[in-house]
Amino acid sequence: MKRVKLITDSAGDINKDICGKFTRVPLAIHVGDREFMDDDNLDRKELLRAMKESAEAPKTASPSPWDFLREFTGEDVVFVVTLSSKLSGSYANAMLAAEIARKKKLARFVHVFDSKNATVGQTLVTLKLLELIEEEREETEIVEEVNKYIENLHTYGFLESIDNLAKSGRISKMMAKVGSALNIRIVFGRSSEGTIALVEKVRGTKRAMQKLVDLIAEGGSNLEKKICGIAHINCLEKAQQLYETIRERFNFRDVIIFEASGITTVYGNEGGLVIAF
Fold first, then answer.
1. What domains are defined for the chain?
2. Nearest to residue 258, comparing CAs of 115, 124, 113?
């Protein structure tokens, strides 16, 4: 029986039900002079506290090619899922690792997927791969099915805090103050190229959550065949409220709540929610 290994970088979100089902190669997070590894030992609350106290924007670093390569050895088939190539160098490094693995014949078949996504969208790509692997599909069929899945995936979210955007200079500090005073929530979505695009600015969390529901209604089709993922950044109660609303209104095959990864925590900040379907 062939050995198949599934590897991802750590940008996808997780929960206890999927821990251990694939290998996560961690990104590094730098807040001031502190380094956090986005692995199973990450203390997310401490990361949030460090970001809040730091005057500098947090920075992230992709896994090196060698971080990926050391996970390839001894397998017949290796699939890798990475954060969007438009957002990180993770995909390029995984591709270099795959090229080395092929030359050294470390695995019979290696394929790297650019998820064109982040956060829970990347997680759903990983779950789709797991499903096809468990069905023992052929490698070429898996590649075709997953690429099609990526193209049809919708990802949206909203930011409860825009502090990190202001610290990084992506928006002015004055705009951040005005946004906070007016209770503005930034609703974003994934573009087809894998970038993050502004969808709308709304007043308050309640309207932001309703906008996510509206976006499902506008863009969803064949929902009975799909999984909806919800990722939360230290706001489980809000995620559960959104879960109940989605369950009542739509007929998804399943709705699953995930805890935000360290990378999602860095860019979404405390209180943010992300959905994918």
1. 4-151 (3.40.50.10170), 155-276 (3.30.1180.10)
2. 124
